[in-house]
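Issue 218. Parser rejects a valid record. Input:
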Amino acid sequence: MKRFLSMPPQITRLVLLTIAIICAYFTARYLLTPQSFGQYGHYRGAALQEIAGREPFWAGRKTCDTCHGEIVQKLAKAEHKGLSCETCHGPAKAHVDNPEVKLPKPGYGQCVRCHEASPSRPAWIHQVTPAKHYTGQVCTECHVPHQPNEVP
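Output the parser choked on:
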């Protein structure tokens, strides 16, 4: 004990501050960690019930097929066959519940999101440099979105 008291005061303060920080950390960790944390690994177990309880806002391609079958069939033969309708048109649950709600038509931003030239994209995806390709126009003026190689 005598040795502890003989330390310089700045070292004593640093040791006490370090102990206070460690105690504050463990207290906060105990109080702020949810009880279900660690139930299914390094996750909060209650998150599963919360996510399952959310209202869905995606409809899915099968739902689109019930009313827009001809377009879905046309899309199945084109380059975009692996995409869901909602990739370009956005979440469609509101439209399914009420057909009066119109979905946005794909515009320049939706096309460029996937087709803007980037070295990280696979070579089989058609890529364009927006500043050089169709400047000032909307992609759908020259391309049919459901069959991009077809001229409107």
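Fixed in the parser; the record now loads. Helices lie at 2-5, 9-32, 46-52, 61-67, 69-76, 85-89, 93-97, 108-115.
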